[in-house]
């Protein structure tokens, strides 16, 4: 088990101020990855009359409004400010905010289209297979996970990114999507998204 002492850069990475700085870059990269889509899509399985707008579902929007004691509204009325708030608090902070570069975006973008817990669980499994993580596969970031990440050099991070991307694709292959919203074959669309995100993450690792 790694016992190295976190350096200043590792400690800084876990500060809220730095998380906010990195969020702007991650949000910009995500918009590039998705082409900035902000259309409303109604899904045939939505019994509550909801749908998705800009990647946000009616259920996600409802949870956000309830959390802050606000009246429920249709997803079509979600504002850009609310989208940013949800993205930061519900997706960025539980996934990429405290991660090293490259891994931060790869985890964040995957958590956004699946679930933050799913994104972290899969990352934990990959890390555990290499002996970089010795905790439970619980989908939560914590000291044991951070200790493993802090000990990784650039070659290790590149290896982790490549294997993480492969596991993300395997996850999408298991998804049974009944509505072809993303394309004729949604799995192909999701896997292409992983490839594009991986390229962006690897480029970020070089900087």
Task: Briefly summarize what is shown.
The protein is mostly helical and 207 residues long. Helix content is 59%, strand content 3%.
Main features:
207 residues; 3 strands
What this model shows, in words?
With about 210 residues, the protein is mainly α. The protein has a domain at about 100-205. The protein is built from nine helices and three strands, in the order ααβββααααααα. The chain has a three-stranded antiparallel sheet with strand order 1-2-3. Strand 2 and strand 3 (about 55) form a beta hairpin. The longest helix has 21 residues, at about 185-205.
Produce the secondary structure layout.
Blueprint: H1 8-13, H2 16-34, E1 40-41, E2 52-53, E3 56-57, H3 58-67, H4 80-92, H5 103-113, H6 116-129, H7 143-150, H8 154-173, H9 186-206
Antiparallel strand pairs: 1-2, 2-3
Helix pairs in contact: 2-9, 5-6, 5-9, 6-8, 8-9
Supply the helix-strand structural class. Answer: mainly alpha
User: Ranges with pLDDT <50 over ≥5 residues?
Assistant: 178-184
Tell me the number of helical segments per DSSP (H or I, 4 or more residues long).
Answer: 9
Cα gyration radius (Å): 17 Å
Profile the largest sheet: 3 strands, antiparallel
- The coarse overall form would be globular
Helical content band: 55-70%
* Overall pLDDT: 83
What is the strand tally? 3
Order of helices and strands: HHEEEHHHHHHH
Strand order, sheet with most strands: 1-2-3
Strand content: under 5%
Distance between the termini: 28 Å
